[in-house]
Amino acid sequence: MAEVLRVPVLLFDGDCAMCTDWVAWAERHPGAVRSSGEWEAVACQFVDLPALDACAGGRGLVTAERVQHGPLWLTPSGKVYGGLEAAARVLMRSGGAWPYAGGLLALPPVRLLARILCLPATRRWHPTRTGGAP
């Protein structure tokens, strides 16, 4: 990884089937690159996390532990968005109606509702991380 990011990076947990499937969908979705520029998806196991954290200002925001709780979206300007905010950023760069869905998901009340609605799925895919049954 370069010291400065050229394009936004979606950092995800490559061990989670749900995360991996979602990223695969986002990468192949029609218009994902056309609509508003490139981005790169990388599993956290295959990247230098301290270097990415340095790109984000060296504040300890980019860690393997944090990625285990949801994806991170890192911008070239050093901003870091996590979890559903990261998902919203990916949707905003997709084609069709997905940018509108991403814009809605970026709103705090909608994000809170989505977090509540996604909790059962999160417990199913990450039982040890969320306190659900293994």
From TrEMBL:
It comes from Kitasatospora arboriphila. This is DUF393 domain-containing protein.
